[in-house]
Amino acid sequence: MSRPPLPRLGARAYAHLYSDLLWPAWERFARHRATAEYLALLERSQWTAPEDIERHQLASLRALLAHAGANVPYWRETFRRLGFDPRDVRRREDLAALPVLTRDMVRERYAELVDPALAPTNLKKGTSGSTGTPLRFEYSRESECWRQAAKLRGWGWAGYRPGLPTMHYWARLHELPPGARGLKMRVDRAFKREVYVDSMRQDEEGRRHALAALRRQRPSVIICFTQSLAQFARWVVDRGLRDWDDISVVCGAEALLASDRAVLTRAFGPHVFETYGARETMLIASECEAHDGMHLTQENLLVEIVREGVPVPVGERGEVLVTDLHNYGMPLIRYAIGDMARMAPEGHCACGRGLRKLVSVDGRRADILTDGEGNPLPGMFIPPFFVDPDAEVARQFQCIQKPGGELVMRIVKGRDWSAERMELKLRQLRPYLRGLTMKLEYVDAIPPGPSGKMRFVVVER
């Protein structure tokens, strides 16, 4: 097993000060969140026996089901209709008595899926997922603490620690907000020693800017969009530009292919880690130092691999269903993320953790567009423009690049569509297209492809 590189002494000292003293105080007293306590719990529980982890997971599941059946209209009705009693759940497979919760069902029954008592304090978000259908959802503040703690533990396996110099090579679609909120975010990033670089700028100027930021900060960890950093890494390797020591790389948003891992290793060293998540639940699984699959965040989520709602044998490919064990504000139970995956056989990992693992995940890789100058443009930057937690402007969308380069944006109008709202989104999108023309096509529906999934970015060769 290859462990992440050890940061420089000064960086380690500050990270210890920040993560052990400053950050817990900030979370507890400024944000009123118990993230640090949950993180400490997760750090301990990962080393316990698989049967102990499963026992605690099932206890959390029964508590969630009891709450949902008593307080959430949709689940109260569903449990009554099926004669389902949460007290009868004794193993993961018992959850198959409930129907799969789809994105369309969340859209149609949104109000009935929310706990009325927690609705005023719930956090509201939006996502596109890999299906090209924007979705609004919400979750409780306690769930936010669990999500943040799970993220920090998963990234920690790659060597990340709050306070270490970290570069986020991520989609940067909007500038920091003005006023006090923007100032708070700047201060927070400064104390965390984080810099953000726009991963969607894949032209020569954008890559030179990223290279300068990398050399200036000398980060211990890079957190990235997989495709974007792989493209940047190829540019670095082709030009022989590497002049830095090994850097840990945490890949997210898209699947990490063998070719991506190879070029990232040449550009940044062998410490490359894949993660799997969804905006509805945040981190689902993370790769450890054994680099043999991705450990599930079992303390916060229950993951099933199914076919037509029925669990498949271990090792077989199936649909991913996720149950968020701590989102009491809008319980997502047996929620279909939209990806396909395979579960690894149960048993201890070489790293010693008792958490179950996914072997692989399919369905998170978008096609790469080409801008008017011939530069690659990762397709993952398209979805955020059409996601809005407060207004459904597009019910579905799909971006098609024709062989000549023209983009055709197919849109199914949402309930909150207006010409003004659509033009605002297109105005934000156009600067990233760099010399490409775009044509809008409004359609009644966008059918899925042969795989059963609707690709939101299609490049016609």
The fraction of residues in strands falls at 15-25%
Form type: globular
Instruction: For the largest sheet, list the strands in their spatial order.
Output: 4-3-5-6-7-8-9-14-13-12-10-11
Count of DSSP H/I helices? 11
Helix content, binned percent? 25-40%
What CATH architecture of the domain at 9-48 and 143-291 and 355-362 do you see? 3-Layer(aba) Sandwich
Mean pLDDT: 89
End-to-end distance: 41 Å
Number of strands: 20
**CATH class membership of the domain at 9-48 and 143-291 and 355-362:** Alpha Beta
Please outline the major beta sheet.
12 strands, mixed
Radius of gyration: 22 Å
**Which spans of ≥5 residues are poorly predicted at pLDDT below 50?**
none
The CATH topology label of the domain at 9-48 and 143-291 and 355-362 is Rossmann fold
Structural class: alpha/beta
Give the key terms.
461 residues; alpha/beta; Rossmann fold; GMP Synthetase, Chain A, domain 3; twelve-stranded mixed beta sheet; 11 helices; 23% strand; globular
Q: What this model shows, in words?
A:
- Strands 4-3-5-6-7-8-9-14-13-12-10-11 form a 12-stranded mixed β-sheet, sandwiched between helices.
- By secondary structure, the protein is an alpha/beta fold.
- Among the domains are: 9-48 and 143-291 and 355-362, 3-Layer(aba) Sandwich (Rossmann fold); 368-459, GMP Synthetase, Chain A, domain 3 (2-Layer Sandwich), CATH 3.30.300.
- α3 (50-71) packs across α4 (73-82) and α9 packs across α10.
- 33% of the residues lie in helices and 23% in strands.
- The protein has 11 helices and 20 strands.
